[in-house]
Design brief:
By secondary structure, the protein is an alpha+beta fold. The protein has 2 helices and 6 strands, in the order βββαβαββ. Strands 1-2-3-6-4-5 form a 6-stranded mixed β-sheet, covered by helices on one side. It is globular and about 40 Å long.
Length: about 130
Amino acid sequence: MVLKKSVLTPKAPKPIGPYSQAIRAGGFIFCSGQIALDPVSGQLVASDVEGQARQVMENLKAVLEAAGVSLDAVVKTTIFLKSMSDFPKVNEIYGTYFESIPPARSTVEVSRLPKDVLVEIEAVAAG
């Protein structure tokens, strides 16, 4: 039986459904997709993809810190974009958060994201 523990921090948005911000299990931390919601107000922080990408990364960073690791522990991410034309802008911001060994990554375009945001990112970290 794999033991699992939920990770929850007020420094990232509260889940908007029946899921955990992250789950620690089997030596890994599985972070749910983060969107650009302000942790305090629960409101969308920006209408542009750059502002949303920054907030998404800050939310992801906060969840990982609550789990006791940093972004350096991330081994895999998945980026969901409403438009692949936003890839260069998101990629540039994303790169500033992973300056040394960047994680493996997939990026996909999707037709719609929660709260009609432009970007969502999920991650798996060693921990």
